[in-house]
Amino acid sequence: MKQLIKNFKKYRFLLSELVIKDIKLKYRRSYLGILWTLIEPLLTMIVLSVVFSSFYGRNDRTFPIYVLSGRLLYSFFSNATKSAMRSIRTNGQMMKKVYVPKYIYPLSSILSQYVIFLISLIVLVCVAAYLRVKPTIHLLEAIVPLIILFVMVLGVGLILATLAVFFRDMEYLWGVILMMIMYCSAIFYDPERVVKTGNGWILQINPLYSVILNFRNTVIYGQGLDLNALLYSAGFSIAALVIGLFMFYKKQDQFIMNL
Question: Distance between CA atoms of 95 and 83, rounded to whole angstroms?
Fold first, then answer.
């Protein structure tokens, strides 16, 4: 652990440069550039709100922000884990030429996506203000699910980055899993409909849904954190991080030979 902290301090400048590079590459040759961080979730929210509010009969004025909050958190989870999964192969040439702690690559990929995600939350604030969603003291608790989400993504990202080096099909398999996670996260439908069918366990075993639930509770409904969801998502995130670090450090010396 001491060596990990020492390396982090030593290479923090490189880490920040890689984060900036990833963000610039994402929006290069785009006329609107980083503005798409705000425009894309807003347009997605409008489309999903129009389609699903009528389909599911949701007339609640907070439905757009309900959809937007779920979509933003899921998009970060999806984009960051996919980016981390590709990070070792993408930086293979650099790894062969220059020594850098290998965890820097998935970490920088995740941090760049996290910065983009935090910027996109500006849209959430604007939509909440437009819909006159009144903030409460519980809004301060929203930082808790955001931290848990980052730890979750880091753990899952390290696991995927390790597996993807040895199993190239992992990228395609993860795409299918992400689609399943999306439909099991109650992003654009009322979870009560699933509970009434007796399939509420599908939501309960999904740690990402637990994060989204607590984020919505604090931001939209002015409620405190759901303790069960908090403990489950935090426990899963810590376990994923421990497993991810163990796998990554166990296999990192074999990365170059398998690129």
Answer: 17
